[in-house]
Design brief:
250 residues, alpha/beta, Rossmann fold, six-stranded mixed sheet, four-stranded antiparallel sheet, globular, binds adenosine-5'-diphosphate, binds magnesium ion, ATPase-coupled polar amino acid-transporter activity, transport, ATP-binding, ABC_transporter-like_ATP-bd
């Protein structure tokens, strides 16, 4: 579902990604941990085309991102074609980024109507299902300002799911939440995983990584230092840098 080969990204003279190699199989939940500034968000943003990579290759759902291959030549895709590739990917950020002037339902239906040209009725029908799935059937007509952070984040998840993504990216989805609201969001994510969604989750929630993750990647300073099953990496880290990081967060 995702394959990265020697992915590099720099901002000005700062090398942020220094050759990322990884693979995510269909249905896999990959958790990504690592210190602040190690390039976790940048990598997710590259996968989602929010940043353009400087070198290497990135495939999502079998498509080489940003290019079309003809024979042995590569052609850069036009913006419209890039948008089509992006539509296969849902992303949830630390800050929920809901449209404040739209209800929960309005937020969930916006992209299907505007981007996909779905009818209002059809989008609302699906929107109702999705809001029920994230436990917010009773908040359909509520505006973000009237929702708790946990509820807003669940709307954000429903909104991402409304485009029927093949892959869901989560960038510290619970880091901005009050502690008592973290569980309800993780529960929704866990259900999504159980239902077979392919997910990449940047998180500090080691309990979630251990319980729900199929694999765990430790990033530091723009590289993948260590990857394995969550149990192995968390209980028996092989690299000094992983050990140091875990000793601070566990
Ligand atoms: P993480 O998510 O692991 O905390 P980030 O991917 O956000 O790390 O950032 C990695 C590094 O890239 C940091 O040093 C950050 O300052 C830098 N960085 C991220 N985005 C930009 C940008 N748009 N312009 C310049 N530097 C950036
Ligand atoms: Mg980040």
């Amino acid at each position: 579902m995702v394959k990265a080969e020697a992915v590099h990204k720099h901002f000005g003279r700062v090398d942020v990604l220094k050759g990322i190699d990884l693979e995510v199989r269909p249905g896999e939940v990959m958790c990504v941990i690592g210190p602040s500034g190690s390039g976790k968000s940048t990598f997710l943003r590259c996968v989602n085309h929010l940043e353009k990579i400087d070198a290497g290759r990135l495939w999502v759902n079998g498509h080489l991102m940003g290019y079309r291959q003809k024979g042995d030549k590569l052609y850069e895709l036009r913006d419209k074609e890039v948008s089509a590739q992006r539509r296969e990917i849902g992303m949830v950020f630390q800050r929920f980024n809901l449209f404040p002037h739209m209800t929960a339902m309005g937020n969930v239906c916006e992209a299907p109507i505007r981007v996909r040209g779905q009818s209002k009725a059809k989008a609302r029908e699906r929107g109702a299902q999705l809001l029920e799935r994230v436990g917010l059937a009773d908040k359909v007509d509520t505006y973000p300002s009237q929702l708790s952070g946990g509820q807003q984040q669940r709307v954000a998840i429903a909104r991402a799911l409304a485009m029927d993504p093949k892959l869901m990216l989560f960038d510290e989805p619970t880091s901005a939440l009050d502690p008592e609201l973290v569980g309800e969001v993780l529960e929704v994510m866990k259900q999504l995983a159980v239902d077979g969604m392919t997910m990449m989750v940047v998180t500090h929630e080691m309990g979630f990584a251990r319980e729900v993750g199929d694999s765990l990647v430790f990033m530091d300073d723009g590289i993948v230092v260590e990857k394995g099953t969550p149990g192995d990496v968390l209980s028996n880290p092989q690299h000094r840098r992983t050990q140091d990081f875990l000793s601070k967060v566990l």
